[in-house]
Automatic annotation (TrEMBL):
Entry keyword Nucleotide-binding: yes
Name the UniProt record assigns to this protein: ferredoxin--NADP(+) reductase
Nucleotide-binding in keyword set: yes
UniProt xrefs under SUPFAM superfamilies: Ferredoxin reductase-like, C-terminal NADP-linked domain, Riboflavin synthase domain-like
Length: 270
């Protein structure tokens, strides 16, 4: 059997309108979190911050969940950061993928955590918890982010310090990349906190906003719709509570068809 026949055979088993991409690397951070990369299909375009439907064939049927694409729009490979949910319809299987396995991806990416959904301002806050950092992993490696904003603040809150590792690795990758470090310069601040063990910074981001501690630590004024924009990605409760604080600061929610002062996306799990 030649290679061509193998590829055609495989393509014939794919559901219509779906890419089948090869896993290139898998990295496990904790028993709850892992990252993987896979090939990027020819002609697959997305805006940094968008998500795609990612899936696997399970018992002969495709099972999909929405995943933010963690790599930037210019990258050759696609990267994802995933939770492992015990018994989760997709993640209980996805957590076992290995190099060379095939992952499914529906063809159309979408999402609201995009630069186009925000009006111009000086400073961009990205508020994330857990795997909610994924769309921001894309956006902080996107040169356009730094063309549009003078300051970019990525907050990441997890239960435990080990869960922050992906974010630390990401920021040091940026600092060590010759081209990207030049684009980013000193515009990016990474503010990491944990809630369930001791660390140099602790507390929910919502509490740190309401108490003013976040701004004190950053040496910045409180949220102001004239200078600040926000993007939020985390659990449903975190989205609701953070959104309320931004609205209390006078900021207005935007969308793709109505750019405004902040945007929200659910962190997708399951
Ligand atoms: P906490 O440990 O106090 O619950 P999870 O893994 O449950 O999604 O949580 C990820 C992080 O988000 C945890 O640090 C958690 O804090 C925090 N978190 C959970 N709910 C909220 C909320 N409503 N507002 C802000 N942060 C939250």
């Amino acid at each position: 059997m030649n290679m061509q026949a193998t590829t055609e055979e495989f393509a014939a088993t794919l559901p219509a309108g779906v890419y089948g991409e090869k896993v290139l690397s898998v990295q496990h951070y904790t028993d709850r979190l892992f990252r993987f990369t896979m090939t990027r299909p020819d002609g697959f375009r997305f805006r940094s911050g968008e998500f795609a439907m990612i899936g696997l064939m399970v018992d002969g049927k495709p099972v999909y969940r929405a995943y933010s694409i963690a790599s930037p729009s210019w990258a050759e490979e696609l990267e994802f950061f995933s939770i492992k949910v015990p018994g989760g319809p997709l993640t209980q299987h996805l957590q076992n993928i290995q190099d060379g396995d095939i992952v499914l991806m529906r063809k159309k990416p979408t999402g609201t955590l995009v630069l186009d959904a925000l009006t111009p301002a000086k400073r961009l806050y990205m508020f994330s918890t857990g795997t909610g950092i994924a769309p921001f992993a894309s956006l902080i490696r996107e040169p356009e982010t730094y063309e549009k904003f003078d300051e970019v603040i990525l907050t990441h809150t997890c239960r435990e310090v080990a869960e922050l590792q992906y974010g630390f690795d990401l920021v040091s990758e940026i600092r060590n990349d010759e081209l990207l470090s030049e684009v980013v310069g000193d515009k990016l601040t990474h503010y990491a906190t944990v809630t369930r063990e001791p660390f140099e910074r602790t507390g929910r981001i919502t509490d740190l906003i309401s108490s003013g501690k976040l701004f004190e630590d950053l040496g910045l004024p409180p949220l102001n719709p004239e200078t600040d924009r926000g993007m939020i990605c985390g659990s449903a409760d975190m989205l609701k509570d953070t959104k309320a604080l931004l609205e209390a600061a006078g900021m207005d929610e935007g969308a793709n068809n109505k750019p405004s002062e902040f945007v929200i996306e659910r962190a997708f799990v399951g």
